[in-house]
Every structure is written in C-alpha cells, then in structure tokens.
Amino acid sequence: MRIPVITLSGFLGSGKTTLLLSLLKESYARGLQPGVLMNELGKQDVDGYILEEQTGAAVEKLLDGCVCCSRREELGDSLELLIKRRPDVIFIELTGVADPDEISRSLHEPYLATRLSAHAVVTLVDAENMLDYNSRLSSDKQLVRTLRSQLALANLIIVNKSDLVTPEILTKIEKAIRKRNPNAEIEFTAYSRIPLHSLLAGIVPKETKPLPKRAPLGFQGSPLRKTAAGRSEAVPDNAPGEHAASFSQVGAVTLAFPQGKTLPKAVLEAFFGEWADRLLRAKGHVQLPGGKPVQLVQHAGSRTTWEDSRYPGAPYLVFIGTNLNGEQLAERWAALFR
What we know:
- With about 350 residues, this protein is an alpha/beta fold.
- It folds into 2 domains: about 5-225, Rossmann fold; about 250-335, CobW-like, C-terminal domain (Hypothetical Protein Yjia, Chain: A,domain 2, 2-Layer Sandwich), CATH 3.30.1220.10.
- About 30% of the residues lie in helices and about 25% in strands.
- The chain has 10 helices and 13 strands.
- It has helices at about 15-30, 45-55, 75-85, 100-105, 110-115, 130-135, 140-150, 165-180, 265-275, 325-335, and strands spanning about 5-10, 35-40, 60, 90-95, 115-125, 155-160, 185-190, 225, 250-255, 280-285, 295-300, 305-310, 315-320.
- The strands form 2 sheets. It has an 8-stranded mixed beta sheet with strand order 3-2-4-1-5-6-7-8, sandwiched between helices. Strands 9-13-10-11-12 form a 5-stranded antiparallel beta sheet, covered by helices on one side.
- Helix 1 runs parallel beside helix 2 (about 45-55).
- The protein is globular.
C-alpha cells in the first residue's frame, strides 16, 4: 500500500508552516500518524522547531539549501527514512523558492513509486505581496519559472492574507493565477485557514482499512470566498525532462547574537527596513532586553510579527533575500551591538 504525499509549496512568507500545523493537528485528531519532511533555505531550523514544539511531530529536515538544487540528492534518503516509520501520510513543506516539480519527479522514481503516491500539491500565495513580488523579481528568470511552476502544478491554491487587501487586488490575483493554472481550486482566506476534510479525504490509519482512491478535491466553504475547479492539468514552462535551478539571486544568511547580547524590537525592525530593497523574509528566535521571554520573530514584505517562544538555544536570525552580501550584512549586524 502506497503512502500518500501532500506537498506544500509557495513563496517565502505565504503561510505554509501555519497550514502544516493545522494539517498535523487534524491528522492526529483522525488517528493518523503523519511523517514530515521540512526543507529550509537557511542553516537554522526555524520552522521545524515550531512544528516540534507545537505538535510533537518527528520532522526530517533538509537545511541550508533547496531540494531542487543543493539538497536534491538528499531528498530520496530523507523520504526513505520517513517510509521506514510507516506513516499514514507524508507532508513535505518546501522552501519558498523550491519547485514542486522536483518532488513529483522523485515520487516517480522506480525505488519510490511503488511505496509513495502524490495525493495533492497545495500552493500558498501571499495576497499582500504577490503582485509586488511579480514585478520586483521579474529580472530573476529562474525564480520566475519556479513561481510559475508552483502555481501550474497545484491542485489547490490558497490565497492567504486575503483580509489585508482590497477585493480589486484579489481579482487581479485570481486573474494572475488563472493565467498559469485554469483548473486548480482557489481558496481565499486568512491565517491559512481552510476546511481540511477534502484535502485529507481517503487517508485512513493503516490498521483500519486499505487506503481508497482519493476523491477529487472538493472544498466546502472558506472564511472569505473561493472559486472552484477540478484537478490541474497545467504544466510548468520547462520542457519535459528539463530541470532548472529554482533560484539564482535568492540566498540566505544566518546572523547569530553575540553571547549574552540582546536587541530591542525597534532596533531589529529598523534593521529589517535598512534592507527592504533586498530582504524577502527574515525569521528566527531572538532575545529582547529586560529578561523578557525569547521571541519568535517573522518578517515578510513590510510586516513583522512577534510571539513568545520556548526555544532553548542561542538566539539568531535568518535573512533571505535577493543579492545579499553576506559580509556587508554581517558587518552591519555586528555594529548593532557596539
């Protein structure tokens, strides 16, 4: 019996980990034993720690690179480790600059095809930043191909943060999506909240009964609105058999806090602003002054969020952006503590 695989795709800061948290909690509520593969562009495991802290899930991690490029050869090994645990379902969360087509190719490799099956590809879109990113990143041809592939290969496209934009913007986003994928179902929502029953349809604990063939996606309702369609048959821009690197100008830099040092929120947010023309995403666990709890900080677009964390390690930040100069960034970071 093959294990169903649900792939979560979408650009940086679109809400993939938030959706995965909901999927894990729903899986446990259904008596399912999920397996998780987390791919992080940076060297630090920010999102994997969030999953482990909030759900207790065992997470296989591929750090410091993308499964489409520098971590491509390790993808099969990680899936093998998950298969040995005999999960009822495997969730794969890709980096924001990964092409889900690489997962599809891997699932069709002979050594995996008899044990794994592609259940769904879900792509999340950041409504607040999508149109700006399309313009801002247009010079990075490889990344443009990847973002198009994320849309084209999806069964379900979630337009997240829809509450932060106008109906006119949502209409433009829907038109942009339909240009790449005329058939996928589209959900407009906030905080990655969608009905999960259709996405998990047909997945049952192994000891209960054989896994039936998955029913077509048929989501019922949404916090805002949705458009419905059938399974996607669109294809990415790459020719059959062609593989392009997911990104060329996007990179990650990890910034460590000097031992015993802290920074106020205002200083960190101003630091994000200094790099606004190149910064796409920042996240990490940071220590604030005054003995306050460790904070999980997440920055995407122009928005920064903070929440308490029980992270026990040394504080750090991961910067992800275009054409980042690591030495220059590290020098400016060090200057904040002088």
